[in-house]
Write a structure and sequence with these properties.
The structure is a single chain. It contains 8 helices and 8 strands. Strand 5, helix 7 and strand 6 form a beta-alpha-beta unit. Strands 1, 2, 3, 4, 5, 6, 7 and 8 form an 8-stranded mixed beta sheet that branches. The protein has one domain: Rossmann fold, CATH 3.40.50.150. Helix content is 36%, strand content 26%. The structure holds S-adenosylmethionine.
Length: 207
């Protein structure tokens, strides 16, 4: 799996610096609204957070959910165990590296916030296919990623080109990938979610 982590990318792997960066750019304020919109789940809902990072989802979801967070960076998993230990299960794991049969048709919702654009096409396909298998019928996967799109300003394209993710796609390319695994896809483009001129694309894929 290709994962470039030098320079600013390495610095942002520190969970505290990552959180500070999103506080300054306004990303954290947007997230409160985002998570309450996409994950207005009943108490006890089973949720898988793939690429959980520093625990952004738990930070923004107040109701009691049955939470599982996985990430392939051990520093993030250690950070989450320390900070949110009693609120969920945190597992050091690469998505799709091995399939867990006990999770087939198990989850009400899967979150992959800011992950797809870090993955190669093959690994992105693995992410979506794995989530599809892990969802109950009627359950849903939500992805949220930096994006290129039609009618995008040059400055927004420039910022997007500097993203840590190595496989930022056009909105149409994200939709094409998702449509290989899901028939029902609701999508939304966000052009002003950060104080920086950045664009991001959310897809809600229902099984
Ligand atoms: C940009 S961060 C987003 C973190 C968090 N979801 C958030 O919204 O802040 C992407 C995360 O995905 C993790 N990651 C990347 N590829 C992964 C993979 N194949 N399996 C599991 N985690 C992965 C990274 O370690 C990182 O924590």
């Amino acid at each position: 799996m290709t994962h470039i982590n030098t320079g600013i990318r390495k610095i942002l792997e520190n969970p505290l610096i990552y959180n500070l960066f999103h506080n300054i750019t306004g990303g954290n304020a947007f997230r409160k609204h985002y998570f309450s919109t996409y994950f207005d789940l009943p108490k006890g809902a089973k949720v898988l957070d793939i690429g959980c990072g520093s625990g952004v989802m738990l930070e923004n979801i107040k109701q009691h959910i049955n939470y599982y967070g996985i990430d392939f960076e051990k520093s993030y998993i250690d950070f989450c165990k320390e900070k949110y230990g009693d609120r969920g299960n945190f597992i050091h794991e690469t998505v799709g590296a091995s399939l867990r049969e006990e999770w087939f048709d198990y989850f009400d919702a899967v979150n992959a916030h800011g992950l797809l654009h870090h993955l190669s096409d093959a690994d992105g396909a693995t992410l979506i296919e794995t989530a599809q298998k892990y969802l109950k019928p009627g359950g849903y996967l939500v992805t949220f990623d930096t994006t290129y799109h039609d009618n995008q300003s040059s400055i927004s394209k420039w910022f997007v080109s500097k993203d840590r993710g190595q496989n930022v796609k056009h909105t149409e390319e994200y939709l094409e990938l998702a449509s290989n695994y899901f028939q029902k896809i609701d999508s939304k483009l966000f052009t002003n979610y950060s104080k920086l001129p950045y664009s991001a694309f959310a897809m809600k894929m229902t099984k």
